Amino acid sequence: MSLSPQAVRHLWAYSRAHFRSQRGASPIQQRRFGLHSFCKATAALVLTLALAPMLGSCTNRGTGAASTSPNDPENRPSVVATSTIIADLTQEIAGDEIVLTSILRPGDDPHVYEPVPADIKAVERADLVLYNGFNLEPALIRLMAAVGQDAPQIAVGEAADALEMDKAGQKQPDPHVWGDVRNAIAMVNAIRDALIEISPEDETLFISNAQTLNAQLNDLDTWVYRQIETIPKEKRLLVTTHDAFQYYAQAYELEMLGTLIGISTEEQPSAQTIQALVSEIKARQVPAIFAETTINPQLIQTVAAEAGVKLSPQALYSDSIGAVGSPGESYIKMIEANTKAIVEALGGRYQPFVASAAGAAGAK
Question: pTM for the full model?
Answer without folding.
Answer: 0.79
